[in-house]
Design goal:
With 154 residues, this protein is of the alpha+beta class. The protein is 49% helix and 27% strand. A hairpin with a 3-residue loop joins strand 2 and strand 3. Helix 1 packs antiparallel against helix 2.
């Protein structure tokens, strides 16, 4: 890992925890519904399993995701590293970028975070998402890459 690699904003751990909680709560209600209607397993086994796995993943996974997410905007490429178990290193050549978006959902907006979405030429893996950025940082990266794209096109 290079020294210039940037971490995501620490508030993204909270955002990921909230989103994980919402996911597991919905899944828990589905598990309870299945436990009530179908008695293929002893009552409560599916719900209890869902509750345990959900609690563990909500507690540990956001911190691990944060620990292994890094990015770097280099002179001619955007470099991303991520992954807890499966490490992925992505290089996006700036000259291949078609357009850029800065996006927020409701939870991210509450923490002033955003995502930089990079749309590249080609059909396979043509969208690259850089989550967990301060909204101002996401806009700065978008504008910096945009400036490179418009200069390169001339």
């Amino acid at each position: 890992m290079a020294l210039s690699m940037q971490p995501l904003d620490p508030a993204v751990r909270t955002v990921w925890t909230i989103k994980s909680c919402l996911f597991w709560i919905i899944l828990l209600f589905v598990a309870i519904f299945v436990d009530i209607l179908w008695a293929s397993l002893p009552f409560g086994v599916l719900s209890a399993s869902c509750l345990i796995v959900g609690a563990l993943s909500t507690t540990f996974v956001p911190g691990l995701r944060y620990r292994f997410w890094r990015y770097d905007l280099r002179p001619e490429e955007l470099y991303l590293e991520r992954g807890i178990w499966n490490r992925v290193r992505t290089i996006v050549p700036l000259r291949r970028i078609q357009h850029l978006d800065v996006s927020q959902d409701l939870v991210e907006r509450n923490y002033e975070l955003g995502r930089l979405i990079v749309h590249t030429a080609g059909s396979r893996s043509s969208d690259v998402v850089l989550p967990g950025l301060r909204y101002e940082v996401a806009e700065y990266l978008r504008d910096t890459v945009k400036q490179y794209i418009t200069e390169d096109a001339l």
